[in-house]
Write a structure and sequence with these properties.
- The complex is a heterotetramer, with 2 copies of chain A (289 residues) and 2 copies of chain B (380 residues).
- Chain A has 289 residues and is of the alpha/beta class.
- Helix content of chain A is 35%, strand content 22%.
- Chain A folds into 2 domains: 111 residues, 3-Layer(aba) Sandwich (Rossmann fold); 152 residues, Succinyl-CoA synthetase domains (Rossmann fold, 3-Layer(aba) Sandwich), CATH 3.40.50.261.
- A 7-stranded mixed sheet of chain A has the order 3-4-2-1-5-6-7, sandwiched between helices. Chain A has a 7-stranded mixed sheet with strand order 9-8-11-10-12-13-14, with helices on both faces.
- Chain A is globular.
- The two termini of chain A are 30 Å apart.
- With 380 residues, chain B is α+β, with helices and mostly antiparallel strands.
- Chain B has 3 domains: 73 residues, ATP-grasp fold, A domain (Dna Ligase, domain 1); 126 residues, ATP-grasp fold, B domain (D-amino Acid Aminotransferase, Chain A, domain 1, 2-Layer Sandwich); 146 residues, 3-Layer(aba) Sandwich (Rossmann fold), CATH 3.40.50.261.
- Chain B is 39% helix and 25% strand.
- Chain B is built from 13 helices and 18 strands.
- In chain B, strands 7, 8, 9, 10, 11 and 12 form a 6-stranded antiparallel sheet that branches.
- In chain B, helix 2 packs antiparallel against helix 3, helix 5 packs across helix 6 and helix 11 runs parallel beside helix 12.
- The longest helix of chain B has 20 residues.
- Classes of the chains: A alpha/beta (289), B alpha+beta (380).
- At the C-D interface, helix 9 of C face helix 1, helix 4 and helix 5 of D.
């Protein structure tokens, strides 16, 4: 699994769209090495002094970029991601929301075949605090520190990151998994990574209703796969079964995917469970001192 | 998007899934004619987007054209779970030897389509899955390799079929997967697939299409809103038509947030402080003042709502835009319901300035704001 | 199976390849009406399954309905390479800025579909390919990965297009590949793809469908035999209708073999001994006596044939069956042309016994038999 | 590349058809270890005392077969071959004629991905003389010896094999490449194999018009890729450009794919070129003594 650091050279696919343009500027402000953009048909233009190419292959040839962030609309996102992967970009961060799940299935399968790390889709992206950001999270929230964050949501993730920062802990690497039912990364893959990452002393795990990814993460922690402290927050206790709560993946189906099920599993694995978002940061403060 | 049984069967038929003779009827007379056309004993089935129609009396046999007409009349006059019955499906009655369950679903954990199948199909399939999971055969479809005849035959074999029956079932499985794949279905289901003396026949059909993929299925878009009948409440239907991500809840505090996770956490925090959310409304990313105004207006117009709590963490969504939307909506409605706003992030200062100027208080943390909202709703 | 231009264009249109306004006409009057419908200057083009129609006068411009009628009359009265012209395509005349070549073909060496493209399209493309191969862009399509927008854009880029034009051309390439793939085409070609002020338009269209895949394209099967007009001689057409693998040649020795390689080698050996083969007829694997009889009859009935050489290496095809087929055909036709048979393999003894009984000699090697056939034809 | 020997355990796909049935008996007579047959829907039957299964996976489970020969009709051949490959059969010999080239392209691509050797389609198969036969060639023609044969055709291949046997040389391993435009193996791959095969002292290369596989083989020989003696025969000197001579692949297109071009290339690479089939065997006799 490949994440990012200050050396990562980033290409922005869909850079000429409103979102691509806006977040390219924010990423550059944060210090991300955005070396090129790609929008087919717009090669030769510039966005905010970043050169735009028609294909990722060209961008790579000219700038040696090695990771891609995708803002391409849903209908073109699969092709954009496949293009990035075939050109050797790793990780590939798919911000795009509303991608048909059939396309995501193909995207993720191909990523596994090629060994590419895909973050998302429908993710806020990932950040190595103080070094590089491939995502849409607000810059001011993050400060270099020792807490790793894994989250299925976006704004709730910023909320908790802000508390972690306010507690004076700061973050190491933070990853948004994405709010779709099928995404490239799961908690366990990231827990494995954080287990080895010496900069990460503890992890904030932010989950929500739907699926059983949090339960599986709990099992993984319970069997000793991850041994650093974990504080978790699960959103959706007030949700009603059968209703999609915003995210395509946030739905309680029958009795599966409830917040209680997830909280119980994580609690059973020894994780701290926050009643409200701020609790997560406070608990980590207590542990890390 | 959930298709009705007869709509799903139209799709299945296109793909060659074996079905009994049937016809859709919107009036008792049409049901009578349908019987005549089919020329065999039938069942008349309510077409409605909710489960449990059998228990509700929405499925009835008929042995003559007149009987078909009269039971259709009864069913078309019913409401099931408060939904009107606009159509019935008049379908050849089958002599059932055995009921099989077949489903193709998107599996989150395996990140692919999977086949679920069981020889213990029928109305109790969920019980079978819960109590005797070993009776459910599960097969993961490799997205890069596809689902081919020998994979399908392998599944049929694991179900205990051999020879011709294995092939017939395998063939149906392949067609079902083609439906699932080409129709972008989250769920494609036959329950029961009836084993008769002549082979298998799909007696019921479910097809739920991925809303994100509707742009690839223009023929469904026209029916999109209608398809939520039964699944969504009238207010939710209204919100859907306005393209708002809205879920109706039972409480008295209107909730608007940006981002699904944050909005859910807002509901949860309100609940934690003893309040009751009246709705979930996620603005999504990058809402402009008009959209925010529309959302605020929509929630404020809900008579059950005693107080509104807007929780925005500004990223793409800007705090000043949020403030403008709130102020505009309030002005437009000439509404005086208490509003609690918590905002943070992009253009936070300007947003607060605007709100304070309009006499709306703001809080810095969602916990404080949630507490205030709960108190305001109680006091109102 | 080669489709005619208008048939290929019907397929292309279904896939969204940009085409000029056009209509097919079978009579001069229809051509006049077509002009009126199109309402612009047109070209009237002979629809015929052979190349070189331009040089033969089969493509003519028309500026008025009357002119369209009169040139259509001329063209419909023509024969090109001995073929009648049954239809003309009346098509909007384009203002050509530039001619591009695009092709999708099955490449034997790479074992995949490949794209061939050149900015030097038009009638001289083969010369371009031969003299300046660097002006032809070649792209191998990975069968497991498919051909996607960015691959297509990459090809357009290598052709020297940028921006919008790159995208337009990439889009056409993707559609062309979809035609090739879904239609099982051995060759899918636009030459020229005309670059006009408004974008690209396919001025000509070729589509050759893999005969082995016709079972997937039922709509083409009806036209199958007809499509060989021009490609096959009348005798070859007759053989094709009888499902015989037959190629007409210029000599006087009829050749029947089993297996393509052996039959070719038989022709070659006859040639080596100074003879001239009148045909190639490959029985294929496992022919039964009826089929062999039919083949022998077909060749013997050819008046040019002075002697028949049957060369069978029995594997699945049995020597006794071969003997029976030969004897039956000869009896049926009451024919006395000299026949040389070389047979070896499965049931060889029985085959030879039958032939000798019917007064037909056999040889043990194809070299001896070939020599004998050459002498017999010369002596006849 | 995996070929066969007397240990190879063979499953016959399409065993219940006329051809499958007939050739299963012939293969067994030859000594091939045919352990099972597969025809979906016919599981539980027997063909000539060989048990029939519904799937290759079952046959493998029961009998540990490791190679497959396919007699399935054209419409089902792709699936049969993919099934064989996924079940780990290697080599997979596709006898079936008339497979759409698009299917063969997919079949061959998948074989390359999985590393499976595919012989054919539209091939007579392959034989290790005196040990095992996966094919439809007449048994009596072959005798254990030192000549390897590579051929694009069937009956012409038997013709030349018979001459080689008559000359007292015998054959080591013989492979029919298949008469379709796209096939799994080419001359070069086999020449590489024969170069290493100590039982093979010389190679008979049997080609025909169409494509440039023989020219490429000549180049390979010319640069020293194959150093044992080669005697070649090319069929189709009397063929007319633009006409398919029986095999889908046997067609001269424009000036490419002629017999002269192939003969000249091979002659240039030092191969002996036979005027008639028997010459090949005679030339090899001379060289091998």
């Amino acid at each position: 699994m490949k994440l990012i650091n200050k050396e990562t050279k980033v290409v922005v696919q869909g850079i000429t769209g409103t979102q691509g343009r806006f977040h390219t500027a924010r990423m550059k402000e944060y210090g991300t090495k955005v070396v090129a953009g790609v929008t087919p048909g717009r090669g030769g233009q510039e966005v905010d002094s970043t050169p735009v190419y028609d294909t990722v292959a060209e961008a790579k040839e000219k700038h040696g970029c090695d990771a891609s962030i995708i803002f391409v609309p849903a209908g073109g996102a699969l092709d954009a991601a496949l293009e990035a992967m075939e050109a050797g970009m790793d990780p590939v961060v798919v911000i795009t929301e509303g991608i048909p799940v059939r396309d995501t299935i193909e995207l993720v399968a191909r990523a596994r075949q090629l060994g590419t790390t895909v973050v998302g889709p429908n993710t806020p992206g990932l950040i190595k605090a103080g070094e590089s950001k491939m995502g849409i999270m607000p810059n001011q929230v993050f400060k270099r520190g020792s807490v790793g964050i894994i989250s299925r949501s976006g704004t709730l993730f910023y909320e908790i990151a802000a508390h972690v920062t306010n507690q004076g802990l700061g973050e190491s690497t933070c990853v948004g998994l994405g709010g779709d039912p099928v995404v490239g990364l799961d908690y366990i893959e990231l827990l494995k990574w954080f287990q080895k990452d010496s900069e990460t002393k503890a992890v904030a795990l932010i989950g929500e209703i739907g699926g059983d990814a949090e339960e599986k993460a709990a099992d993984f922690i319970a069997v000793g796969g991850f041994t650093k402290p974990v504080a978790a927050y699960i959103a959706g206790r007030a949700a009603i079964p059968g209703k999609r709560m915003g995210h395509a993946g946030a739905i309680i189906q029958g009795s599966a995917g409830t917040a209680d099920s997830k909280m119980n599993a994580l609690r059973g694995a020894g994780a701290f469970i926050g009643e409200q978002p701020v609790d997560v940061a406070k608990a980590l403060k207590k542990v890390l001192g | 998007m959930k298709l009705l049984e007869y709509e799903a069967k139209e799709v299945f038929r296109r793909y060659g899934v074996p079905l009994g003779a049937s016809a859709v009827a919107s009036t008792p007379e049409e049901a009578r004619d349908a019987f005549t056309k089919i020329g065999k004993p039938v069942v008349v089935k309510a077409q409605v987007g909710v489960g449990g129609r059998g228990k509700a009396g929405g499925i009835k046999p008929a042995d003559t054209p007149e009987q078909a007409q009269s039971v259709a009349k009864q069913i078309l006059a019913m409401r099931i779970k408060d939904l009107p019955i606009r159509k019935v499906l008049v379908e050849e009655r089958l002599t059932i030897q055995h009921e099989v369950y077949l489903g193709v679903i998107v599996d989150r954990a395996s990140r692919c389509f999977i086949i679920l199948a069981s020889r213990e199909g029928g109305v109790n399939i969920e019980e079978v899955a819960a109590k005797t999971p070993e009776k459910i055969v599960k097969y993961n479809i490799d997205p890069l390799r596809g689902f081919r005849s020998y994979h399908a035959n392998g599944v049929a074999k694991r179900l205990g079929y051999n020879g011709k029956k294995m092939q017939q079932l395998g063939d149906i499985l392949m067609k079902l997967y083609r439906v699932a794949y080409e129709m972008d279905a989250e769920l494609t289901e036959i329950n029961p697939l009836v084993e008769t003396a002549d082979g298998f026949i799909a007696a019921d059909a479910r097809l739920n299409v991925d809303n994100n993929a509707l742009y690839r299925h223009k023929e469904l878009e026209a029916k999109f809103l209608e398809s939520f009948e039964g699944e969504l409440t009238p207010r939710e239907m209204e919100a859907r038509a306005m393209d708002l991500t809205y879920v109706e809840l039972n409480g008295d505090i209107g909730i608007i947030g940006n981002g699904a996770g944050l909005t859910m956490a807002t509901l949860d925090t309100v609940m934690l402080y003893g309040g009751h959310a009246g709705n979930f409304l996620d603005l999504g990313g990058g809402a402009n003042p008009e959209r925010i105004g529309k959302a605020v207006e929509f929630v404020l117009k809900d008579n059950r709502v005693k107080a509104l709590f807007v929780n925005v963490l500004g990223g793409i969504t800007r705090c000043d835009d949020t403030a403008k939307g709130i102020i505009d909506a309030r002005k437009k409605l000439n509404d005086t319901k208490p509003i609690v706003v918590r905002m943070m992030g992009t253009n936070e200062e300007e947003g607060k300035r605007l709100l304070h100027g309009a006499g709306i208080e703001t809080d810095d943390t969602m916990e404080e704001a949630a507490q205030k909202a709960v108190n305001l709703a109680k006091g109102a």
